[in-house]
Recover the amino acids of this structure.
């Protein structure tokens, strides 16, 4: 299975990037002082390969003279933690809601799906912005708000899967044997919807990363000295014409990482989609 | 109908339009488009003291007396001269032959009516409380103000807010309608106001000072700094108000543009709350924090030289009451650490810094910079950047914490600065010995300006030796404009003055 995932070079690259970024987020390296503390005498030092640059600040410095490379590493942690935590939260709540709706049907289904409609009908960025404005700026509220904007997609996907599972033979068999609804949902249905949830999650991580970036860009992200990639772009954009590198570095990080997660998601989908799997097996047999 | 027919039909209209455009002097002169960073919430002269709003209605409604463009000297305008009859009676002679754009005459009654509005106006109430006994007319062009007690700051107050409105019209429509459609004696009249988009002023053909060379002034609201500059570079606007200082060097080298920098009076300060039980109560800690911040470096590197460091107290050289004997705190982190150790905090302590974000240019950057400097002497700073509305809410809830940082702009007379920090004021977070309030009160009723200045110098020394804040910087005001715009001089009070502008 893993071999299939790694069958293409871009997927190998994507997996490497994702693992690297996740490792950076999990391994708690203390940020270097030059990444956090302003040093006005170092303001706008260009990257090392540009004239005037120095290898002590390989990617240059920002408008307060802070080392961009160090900040980028430091920001990875917050960017990844926020988007993965929000994804996990959204996946968990959305899956439970979707299973409830799909397995129970009736009133619960109607209510949950109207709630999903409401969330999906609302422009995401507007919803997120107004919620942050109300709840205040903090790491936990940021994660909560992102999750709140993302659970509906899971609920929809899981519900439709659960609807077809409910009519499947093994679920009927379990029911006939007297399994409780809870056991049916978590023991028999959940494992069967997990592949779709996993695929959706890789896309959601990337989406949340972008959403968090836009919020940080608008000044509603994390509180300094904590910083995220989007925040770095936001604070550097006023100086774009003086110091392109302060925007380019975090911008590249955002682009590469979201691309990597998307490619990974594509790969997982191909891998877990039964029709495609059987097709490739068929090919392998030939 | 064929397109050619439509064109034929259009021809007479075009002829008429062309003829009209040449018809009268009303159509001569240029149109000046000003890129404004804020959309006024009101154009009521007595409803706001925000310089950005005054910048719009100051072209429509004129004042009795005005500040000089460069410093706190009061100049005659609609009032031609004034004198003190006795320590509590102030008399002004008014300009003759002036009328409002709606035809009402400008006379002593109009001045009296407007002054009463000023003395009752909420935004000015902190300065006018228990000040005025009555306003009377004494002849068709003479108005008298009777005070409760002698006051040295009546004149600066008038220079800040003595706008004159037509009494009959104002009474008829009421203050709320007037705020939407102000009428005055100025060189322009309001012709259109689309909220959030633009304000159009047309030339007042009957202006007492002669017709203005500009036919029309259009204020376009462009809140985003970069967008405003881009609009200027693209030629969509002629003047960009509040041009970002970060763009100064780049704008300077553009040949089509002119950039004028003027010192500003918005004083950025990290105010200490010494009523909370934190190490900041210790005077040595507060001095240490002042020594820890390198104001010169901030001015030079972040503001490109377009700012001034507060001179170790809260009054700038452009203001009345500045003490030239005091110098900015030197940047001396070693001494700062030593002072912290003497105060019993050799390993620093933890504190919180609340600052505004997005309200003033570079306010977030300043917050991060100050936090960085304090960290460098061992003070651990929890930063709390807040949006301005939240900042005001925290203030009224009394939750600004041990240090809060923002920029205050007050009229350029020491009285207005120091009276912010008198007993009972919402701006006061540090309590001085009784001498402080006594001196402020004494100065307020001291009519001899020498003696008054001496008192303010003493107050400056008090606030230097026992700082109520980290005295940071006052950023300059940048006006960026097309090179063709003539006669625009930035004013130290940040109010736009289009009276001498031509294009």
């Amino acid at each position: 299975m893993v071999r299939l995932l790694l069958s293409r070079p871009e997927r190998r690259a994507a997996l490497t990037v994702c693992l690297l970024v996740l490792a950076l987020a999990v391994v708690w390296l203390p940020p270097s002082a030059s990444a956090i503390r302003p040093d006005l005498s170092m303001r706008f030092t260009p990257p090392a390969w540009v004239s005037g640059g120095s290898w002590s600040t390989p990617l240059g410095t920002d408008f307060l003279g802070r080392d961009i490379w160090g900040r980028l590493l430091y920001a990875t942690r917050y960017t990844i933690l926020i988007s993965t935590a929000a994804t996990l939260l959204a996946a968990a709540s959305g899956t439970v809601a979707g299973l409830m709706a799909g397995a129970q049907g009736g009133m619960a289904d109607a209510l949950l799906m109207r709630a999903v409609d409401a969330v999906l009908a609302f422009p995401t960025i507007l919803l997120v912005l107004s919620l942050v404005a109300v709840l205040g700026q903090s790491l936990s509220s940021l994660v909560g708000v992102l999750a709140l904007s993302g659970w509906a997609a899971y609920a929809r996907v899981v519900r439709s899967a659960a609807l077809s599972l409910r009519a499947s033979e093994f679920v009927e068999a379990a029911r006939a044997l007297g399994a409780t609804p809870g056991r049916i949902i978590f023991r028999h249905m959940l494992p069967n919807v997990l592949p779709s949830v996993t695929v959706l999650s890789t896309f959601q991580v990337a989406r949340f990363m972008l959403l968090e970036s836009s919020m940080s860009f608008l000044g509603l992200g994390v509180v300094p000295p904590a910083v995220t990639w989007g925040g770095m772009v936001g604070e550097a954009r006023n100086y774009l014409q003086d110091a392109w590198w302060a925007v380019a570095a975090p911008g590249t990080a955002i682009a590469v990482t979201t691309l990597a997660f998307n490619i990974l998601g594509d790969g997982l989908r191909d891998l877990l989609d039964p029709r495609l799997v059987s097709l490739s097996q068929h090919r392998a047999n030939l | 109908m064929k397109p050619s027919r439509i064109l034929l039909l259009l021809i007479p209209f075009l002829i008429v339009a062309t003829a009209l455009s040449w018809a009268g002097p009303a159509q001569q002169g240029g149109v000046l488009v000003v890129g404004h960073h804020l959309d006024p919430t009101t154009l009521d002269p007595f409803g706001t003291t925000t310089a950005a709003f005054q910048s719009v209605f100051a072209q429509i409604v004129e004042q009795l007396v005005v500040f000089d463009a460069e410093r706190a000297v009061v100049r005659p305008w609609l009032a031609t001269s004034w004198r003190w009859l006795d320590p509590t009676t102030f008399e002004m002679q008014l300009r003759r032959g002036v009328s409002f754009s709606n035809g009402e005459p400008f006379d002593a009654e109009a001045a009296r009516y407007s002054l009463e509005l000023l003395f009752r106006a909420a935004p000015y109430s902190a300065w006018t409380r228990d000040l005025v006994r009555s306003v009377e007319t004494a002849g068709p062009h003479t108005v008298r103000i009777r005070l409760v007690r002698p006051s040295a700051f009546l004149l600066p107050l008038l220079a800040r807010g003595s706008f004159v409105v037509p009494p009959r019209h104002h009474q008829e429509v009421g203050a709320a309608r007037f705020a939407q459609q102000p009428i005055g004696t100025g060189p322009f009249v309001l012709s259109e106001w689309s909220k959030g988009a633009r304000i159009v002023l047309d030339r007042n053909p009957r202006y007492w000072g002669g017709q203005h060379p500009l036919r029309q002034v259009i204020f376009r609201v462009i809140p985003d700094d970069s967008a405003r500059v881009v609009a200027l570079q693209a030629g969509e606007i002629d003047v960009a108000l509040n041009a970002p200082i970060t763009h100064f060097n780049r704008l300077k080298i553009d040949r089509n543009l002119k950039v004028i920098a003027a010192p500003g009076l918005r004083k950025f300060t990290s105010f200490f709350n010494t009523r909370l039980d934190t190490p900041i109560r210790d005077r040595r800690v507060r001095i240490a924090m002042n020594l820890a911040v390198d104001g010169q470096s901030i001015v030079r590197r972040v503001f490109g030289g377009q700012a001034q460091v507060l001179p170790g107290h809260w009054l700038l050289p452009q203001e009345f009451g500045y003490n030239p004997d005091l110098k900015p705190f030197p940047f001396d982190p070693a001494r700062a650490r030593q002072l912290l150790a003497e105060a019993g905090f050799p390993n620093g302590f933890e504190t919180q810094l609340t600052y505004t974000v997005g309200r003033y240019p570079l306010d977030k950057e300043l917050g991060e910079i100050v936090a960085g400097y304090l960290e460098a002497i061992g003070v651990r700073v929890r930063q709390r950047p807040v949006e301005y509305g939240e900042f005001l809410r925290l203030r009224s809830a009394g939750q600004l914490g041990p240090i809060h940082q923002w920029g205050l702009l007050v009229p350029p007379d020491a009285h207005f600065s120091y009276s912010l920090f008198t007993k009972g004021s919402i701006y006061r977070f540090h309590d001085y010995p009784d001498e402080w309030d006594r001196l402020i009160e004494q100065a307020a009723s001291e009519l001899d300006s020498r003696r008054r200045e001496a008192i303010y110098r003493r107050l400056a020394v008090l606030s230097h030796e026992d700082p109520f804040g980290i005295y940071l910087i006052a950023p300059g005001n940048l006006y960026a404009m097309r090179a063709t715009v003539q006669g625009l001089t930035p004013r130290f009070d940040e109010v736009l003055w289009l009276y001498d502008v031509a294009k």
